[in-house]
Amino acid sequence: MKLTSMAAATALAFCALMPISAQAQSKQDFELINRTGYAISEVYVSPSKADDWQDDLLENSDNNFEDGEKRNVHFARAGKTCKWDLKVVYDDDDSSAVWHDIDLCEVSRITLRYNRKTDTTSASFD
Known about the structure:
Layout: H1 5-10, E1 30-35, E2 40-47, E3 70-73, E4 83-90, E5 96-103, E6 109-115, E7 120-125
């Protein structure tokens, strides 16, 4: 990974997937909702200009992100960038989905859905 000062500054210590009420909220915090019908084993959020993905937000979690679950993604401190990329990896480790340039300064909820007919994962941003 090529760490630029921008990437280093935004390689935030995520208190990932914890209740927001227990923490001070930054403008990039958001709620992630899994409505795919499947378990998700990995979640990555990185600044859009970063050369690679940051740490897996579920890495320290004992559980997968199950269908129907809602989790809060909390940034330990506010970053200077609003544009972020999101990647999820399904529990089968063969399937993943990626979204680019999500404005987390404007988005507070991301809902993931999977369409079996088209074999695609979509996300809605609220």
